[in-house]
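Issue 218. Parser rejects a valid record. Input:
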Amino acid sequence: MYRSTLGKNGIVTDITAQRLAEEKVRYMAHYDSLTGLPNRFLFNESLDHALKAEARGAGLMYLDLDHFKSINDTLGHPIGDKLLNAVALRLEACVRTGDLIARLGGDEFAILVGGENLKAIDQLASRIIEAVGLPFLIDGYEVMTGASIGIAYSPDHGSTPEQLLKNADLALYAAKAQGRSRFIRFESGMDSIAETRRELELDLRSALTRD
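Output the parser choked on:
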């Protein structure tokens, strides 16, 4: 324990508790409390830094788990939380030095791929899909899930964190629409397709309210 003596009166101030509290606040602001991975805030900061610093560009993989809601509903949230932790460990085993994994919330993860690893981003996506697709043994249950992945990279698919996240999310949506447990790279036109789909959904909802 670190102690500091202040003043001539011999007043002893214990600053350890204050330092620990400050470190805890900093940790909670930047890391996911469940998995210990960087959270959305830290990921966005890291992505912004990479886009400014990486002359070779940077890649973004947006990933979520297939049928996770069903697993949560049937086996319960404690099993779902343990599954998320187990998935995080498998993701860490797949990535290379220089890549950053984050949990963005729920069953959504993101991976920032540095410029030196960008050429191998398809191979990384394949490794992740294979690894996450293997059974998980959790509290006596054999749990099966999968990973759907959307990929976007700079500068082709955007030069800001917001653009890359949006386009990787559109690619993820396409991957899920094409059967899940696969990866799709963003392509121009996906945004207009998504907008058309959104307008159709709004029209259908409006039509249902009008019977």
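Fixed in the parser; the record now loads. Helices lie at 16-30, 40-53, 68-75, 77-94, 121-133, 161-177, 190-209.
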